[in-house]
Write a structure and sequence with these properties.
Number of helices: 19
Distance between the termini: 23 Å
Number of strands: 12
CATH class of the largest domain: Alpha Beta
Strand content: 5-15%
Shape: globular
Radius of gyration: 23 Å
Strand order of the largest sheet: 6-2-1-7-8-10-9
CATH architecture of the largest domain: 3-Layer(aba) Sandwich
Largest sheet: 7 strands, mixed
CATH superfamily of the largest domain: Vaccinia Virus protein VP39
Number of domains: 3
Structural class: alpha/beta
Length: 477
Amino acid sequence: MRSTAVNSPELLDPESHGLLEAFCGHLSGVLGLDIPRRRWPEVARAVRVAAREQGCPDVPGCIERMLSQGIDPETMDVIIHHLTVGETYFFRDPAAFAALRDHILPPLIRSRGSGPAEGRRLRIWSAGCSTGEEAYSIAIALQECVPDWERWHITLLATDVNRAALAIARQGVYRDWSFRTTSPEFRARHFQRLPDGHYRIDERLKAMVSFLPLNLAEDAYPAVGTNTTAMDVIFCRNVLMYLQPEHVQRAVARLQRSLCEGGWLMVSAVEAGLAATPGLVCERLPGVLLFRKGEAAVPPAARRSSVSKGGNPPPAAIPRTGRPFRGGEIVRPPEREAAQAPADADSMRVTARTLANAGRLDDALAWCERALAQQPLDAVGAYLRGSILLEQGRMEEAVAAFRRSLYFEPGLAVAQFALGNALAAQGRDAQAAKHYRHALTGLRALPPGQALPEADDLPAGQLVRMIEAILGMESAA
């Protein structure tokens, strides 16, 4: 992120100083960003720009309104753009990508590539992806390391709070400055030169990456609904250093829960101390520190093989405390002995959610299908089944499951959203946009703070903002 001090007399005079301080404190709470006094002028400039765009001449009055009524999405976009301008380029920090190529991917490819086709899965998340160079660098590394990559189910998720940056990432068009550490041969191999001198990413690489707006200071992860569970690798580099200390701790805890057992968290060298936490084992490689989710972070029962052919998943493998579908915990645990299997469809669905969030997708699917066998017309169960299939890379089956869910309950907004995501992943953008808009219609009829139990209690207003950002990215592309 770059920082540029800007004078703002109308906001930094003695009368406005306290107002700006209050607004910066409010922003810190919403975004999780650490906004020290030296960065207040940046906030002042952002507010001035937003006020001008809205035709509001009274900038202090604009701040007072935002403090009392909240910040509308358009104004928030302007402020985020000024506070989180990403400094990034292709294959930034070569040691991190060398670790990915030489240390992380080979054992995963060996262990999963030799088994059945449904086991050939890789899940990687670029958290704080900015304008997309890191995510596309990961895609290139995957193509180079996995010769038969098109036969694998690869999930490459890229998220950022900056919607303007995501719109650039989605376009996949870059200037020379993004290639400052790479060779001309690299550009020729993976990009098409445009008449204006810019470079467009190869369409196959572009199709590998799914971009999603997500604020690491919020609790929308880990969750199957945001596709942020069971990750093999999470890149979260040069992000934690800009968060407030309390938000750093919560973000690292959520990122840890988003990893599958044995999964890797990558941070920048200066953030290594921030990522150190129980359950993440530090491993030193040349030029880079990695953090691996160790067995100590996972309940022993969850490490067992759980589904036998034709049998039920043993209930002893299910974590017993907490809330469901977020971090591998259960909110409403079935009150029964560990050796007794859930008998009713609702408990089976809770079990399926928990296992899905822990990365045990085959087990989760087995429980989900048992629940649907009892309640074949259950729209929420069909939506959950589609979400699990989507994480397994079984796109057509996921689309069919979401359509089934909407057949039973057309107004289920989370299923409309999920179907939009599945269609977008297949490049069917026009159809995806239709379902995103249907989701918005249903969600806008709800109070913004209403929790959506099918989406891990995500507030309706937060999902509205995510969908609006996705539609805005599509219109900008």
